[in-house]
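Help needed: design a sequence for this.
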């Protein structure tokens, strides 16, 4: 997914991910909880962060990874805010 994005967005993602690893709630990331809407759904516990004014990432915290009780954030979507509407799909 990341490899399909323009090179400047890939670089911006790296610049966003580094502070995210230190503090996911760093105010520069505009971290927010996502909720289901009439137009789409998310995995339970999904949150979003801003990469650029036009691009963002969606992640979920995986608790109990590999049975070790560890928590790990898994970014499962990166794209433009316009493509986000397609990504969330329809509730049908």
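Sure. Designed sequence:
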């Amino acid at each position: 997914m990341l490899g399909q994005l323009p090179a400047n967005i890939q670089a911006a993602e790296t610049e966003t991910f580094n502070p995210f690893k230190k503090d996911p709630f760093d105010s520069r990331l505009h971290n927010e909880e996502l909720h289901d809407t009439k137009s789409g759904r998310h995995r339970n516990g999904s949150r979003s962060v801003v990469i650029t004014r036009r691009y963002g990432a969606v992640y979920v915290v995986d608790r109990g990874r590999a049975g070790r009780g560890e928590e790990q954030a898994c970014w499962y979507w990166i794209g433009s805010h316009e493509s986000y509407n397609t990504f969330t799909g329809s509730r049908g």
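The longest strand covers residues 55-65.
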